[in-house]
Write a structure and sequence with these properties.
The complex is a heterodimer of chains A (about 525) and B (about 525). Chain A is of the alpha+beta class. Chain A has 16 helices and 16 strands. In chain A, α13 packs across α16. In chain B, α6 runs parallel beside α14, α8 crosses α10 and α8 crosses α11. Chain B is globular and about 75 Å long. In chain B, about 55% of the residues are buried. The chains are: A alpha+beta (about 525), B alpha/beta (about 525).
Amino acid sequence: MLAGRGRITRRLDRYSIRSAHQLRASAQDKRWPGWAVVVGIEVHAQIKSREKLFSNTWTSTLSQDSNTRVSAYDAAFPGTLPKLNPSCVELGVRTALALEADVQRRSTFDRKHYFYPDLPSGYQITQHYTPFAKGGTLRLPKSATQVRVTQIQLEQDTGKSTSAAHGLTTHIDLNRAGTGLMEIVSEPDMRSPEEAAEYVKTLQSLLRSVGSSDGNMEQGSLRCDVNVSVHELAKPGQLGTRCEIKNLNSIKGITVAITSEVLRQIQLLENGEKVRQETRGFDEDTAETFSLRSKEDAPDYRYMPDPNLPPLLLSDDYILSIKSRMPDLPAVTEGRLRGMGLSQRDCEVLMAIDSGREVGYDGTLGQGAVAYFDTVAQGRDPKAVVNWITHELLGQLAHRQDTFTQNAMTAAQMGDLIDLVQSKCITGTSGKLILRHILEHRSTSMPTQLVRELGLLAAETEDDTLRAWCTAAIQALPQESQLVRVGNERVLNRILGHVMKTSKGRANPEAAKAMLLSILR
Amino acid sequence: MLRRHLLNCRRINTASKRISRHYYSTTTATDAHANDKDYLNALVYRIHEVPEAQVAQDAPLKNLLVAIKDNICTAGIPTTCSSRMLKTFVPPYDATVVKLLREAGASIIGKTNCDEFGMGSSNLWSIHGPALNPSDPGNASESELELRSAGGSSGGSAAAVAAGFCDAQVSALGTDTGGSVRLPASYCGVVGFKPSYGIVSRWGVISYADSLDCVGILGKTVDYVRQVYHTVNKYDESDPTAAHVETRDQAASICHEHMVNWSTSGRLNGLRIGIPQLSPASQEYFPSELSSAILGPYRETLRCLAARGAQLVSVSMPSTRYALSAYYVIASAEASSNLARYDGIEFGLRVDPDGPSQIKKAGDVYAQTRSLGFGPEVQRRILLGTYALTADAFDNYFLQAQRVRKLVRADFDRVFRARNVLTTGGTEASDEGVDVLLHPSAIQTAPALVHDPEKGAYRLEDSVSSLDAYLQDVLTVPASLAGLPAMSVPSGFGEDKWPIGVSVVGQWGCDDLVLRVGNEIESLLAGSTVDVG
C-alpha cells in the first residue's frame, strides 16, 4: 500500500519536474495581461532540387505554363513507379545537420490518403511513422532563446487547383505535384507572435544558407501551419486547447494571425466558453482566423507504409561526407567575420544580403555579399573593404534600385579600386566616381585603366593646377571667400566643393584646403 | 513471319476445335484466322502485324510468340485491366518486361483476358467476360462440352497457352499477386512460374498490391518459360523494389552450390524435397477443402521423384493456416491505396456528375466515376482495404497481417537449406533443410461455370460458395507473402480428367533451382501422361 503510493508520488514529481523543464516560462505581455501564449510551427519548405522527389521531371517556377512539367508518374498514370531523388535526400540531410538534428540511419516512406483533384494518386508520400531526422534546435538571436525541432520529414508537394469564384469548373495544374518538401515540425517553444515570426525568419535564412530551399514565402516555397494556445500566466502547468492555423504565407501574416487568434481564444475563455480544438484558416483582409474543421471532422488519412519504396538507409560515411561539404551556417560566418575585425553592424548588413542571395538547384549557392567580401578582402584591410562594400557599393546599388545579384562590379574591380585609393593614387571622391561609372556603364575595365581614361589621377599637392583650381574657385565665390578671409572657416567647404567639382575629384581635398587657406589669409 | 505462325496455328488447331460455336465471342475481326479460338475469350486485343525488319536475325526470342496480360502496359495498345475504368486507356509507354521481350525479338500477339485489376481466381470479374478453359478431357462432343473456368486472375494467359493458339512456340506473361499465374496454369494444364519478388521489373505493370505483385510467365513447357524468364529477369533501376545485381548474384551462387550436388548425376540424389505440414500434429499439410482427387496425382509425383533418388522430408509450416487471411488484408489494403488514382481526372473513365448538387465536394465527383468504373469484386476489396487502414482497424488488421507475413517468411527460412539473402542476421541454413517445397497448386481442378441467362453472365457453379472462391488461393498465397519463386507444373489429371498442377517453391533467388526441379517433374511425367494441348 505504502510502496504503491510512494511510486505514484514519485511519478507525479517526475512529471511536474519534466513539464516545468519543457515549458519555458512566459513573460507578462502588455497586449494580454495575465495570459501566456504557446506557439508551435510546422514549416513546409520546398526543396530546391532540379528534379522532383520521385520522378526526373524538372521542378517548376510560377512563371511556367500550367501542366508543362508533368510526367506520367506525376499524373499517377497506372504502371508508373516512384524513384527517390538522391539530391533531395542530400538537401534534407544538410538541413537536418544545420538544425543540429539527429539524422536517422533508417527511415521509411508512408502514404497519406485523401481524395483531392490536385493529388493525382490519391495519396501523398510522406514520412509519417519514421522521419529521416529527429530532435534539432534553432537558436533565435533576438529573442535570446532556442526552439526545439521535433522532426523533419521528406514528402511530396501537391498540384494546385484553382476555381473561379462561383465557377463550376476547377483548373488543375500539376507542375508542382511531386516536388520535394521538407516538413519541419517545432516543439511548442515559442511564447509570442514575434518569436514565431523570428523562428520562421531564422529558419528561412538557415535554409538559404545551406542551399536546401529558397524559402520564398510569397512564391509559396515556404508555408507555415501554426499551432496556438493560451493559458493563464499564473498556471503554467495547465496548457490550453490548441488551434491550428493553416497555410500562412508571409511573416506578417504569421504575426497578425497569431495575435488575432490569441485574442480570440482569450475572449472565449474570459466569457467562460471553451476553446474547441480545430483547424482554422486566416483571412488576410479581415486579419481574422476562421474555422475550417473541428477535431471531430478530422479526416482519417489511412497511413500505410509505401510498399514501393524501400527504407531510406543513410550510412555514417554518407552523413559525414555531407557534413564536410556543408556551406557555413550563419552563426559560423558571423563569428569568422567578427574575427576579421568587422563590426556587428557590418556583419548584419553583409549577412542580410546573403540571406536573400540566389539559391541554385541541388545545393549550389549563388555568390552572396559575404563571398564577395571574402574575395576582395584577401590581402587587403578588411575594414576598408567592408566600408567600400557596405557604404559605397550598397549605397549606389540601393540608389539605382538594383539588388546585389545585379551588381556589375566584380570583386577584382573592387579590389583594384580600393588599392588605388589606399595608395593615394586617386582620391576617395575619384574612387566613388569610378564605382558609379562601372555600375552605370556595366564597364568591365579595371579601375586602373579607367583612371587614365577619365583623367582622374590625383593631382600633386604643390601643383600649379591645384593653385589654378583654387584661384578659380575663389573668383567664382567672392562672397564665401570674403567670409573665410574674416575668419568664418565653416564656409571654406563650399569653396572646396567648387575645387573638387572643377577638378573632377582629382584634387586632394586636404591639399586643396591648405592651398585655399594660404591664398585667402 | 507472324502471319505464317498464325496460319500454322490455324491448321493445327482446326482439328482440335471441339467446343461448340455457341461459345464464340462476338468479336468482329475480319481476318479469318483472327477468330481462331475466340470462343475461349483468352485474347482481348490482337496485334496482327509485327514489323519484321526490327527483329535482328540472331535475336534470342525471334521465333517466340507472346501474349501479354492486359494489366501490363503496352505502348499504343489498349491496356484495360479488364476494367471499365480503363476501357479506353492506351498507355504511352511499354512496361519494362514488354520492352525486354521486344528487344529479344519476341512477337507480341495480343493482350490477354484477366480478372479486373488482377482481383479474382476464376477470371469471372472481367468486362470482357470470362476466359474459358480449353483443357477439357477431349471426349466430350460439342453439345456435351463442359464449361470450366480458366482460373484467375491470369486466366486469358493460361487459356491462350493451353489452347495453342499458334504453334508450339507460345508463351504468355501474367501477373501473380497471390497465385494468379500458378492457379490458372494448374487449371489449364500449363506451366506457370512466379519468379522471386524483385527479380522481374514491375515498371509498367499496373499495381494491384505492390508488395506482392510479380510478373509471371506461362508456357507449354518449362523450357519456354525458362527462355522468357532469362529475357525478363534483368535489373531495372526504374523499379524501386528491384533486387540489386549483387543480391541476385549472391542468391544465385548459393542456389547453384546446392544444385551442384544433384544436377550433374542424371539422378536426383541429394535433392531434398520438403512436404509441408500445417503443424507437427497434423499428418497432412493440406486444408480440409483440398479435394481428395488432387492427392492421388500429387502422391504419384512424389513417388516418382523419390524413385529418381530425391529425398522427401516432412516439414512443419505452422503459420500457413493464417496466410490466406493475412494475404487478403494486405492485398486489399494496398489495392485500396493503389486504386485511389482512378478518379476520372487525369486518365481513364470519367462519369460526369448529374448536376451542380454533385460538384460541391471532390468526393461527390469521384463517386460517380468510381461507382460505375469498378466492378463488384474490386469495390469489395477496396472497401475491405480501406477499412483495414482506418485508424481504428490498422493495428488489428493491417499490422497483424504484417506480423503473420513475417511468421510465414520465417517458416520458409527455417525449412530451406539455402539461406535467405534478403534476411539480415537470419538463421544460417543447415544441411537439415530442404531445397524446394512441393505441394498441390490448387485444392481442385478447374471449377465449372454456368451461364446465367437472366444476368447474361457466367458464374461459378452453385456448389461453390463465394467464400470457396477465395479459398482457391489458399495453397499459393504463402509463397506470395514470402516473395519466393514458385512454379506450377502439370502433374496429371484429376478424377474428372481435368488437369492438375503441382507447385515447386524455392528459397528467394533460387529461381533456377525451381525451374530445374520443374523440368524434372515435367520429364518424369512426360511418359505417363497424355498431351493436353
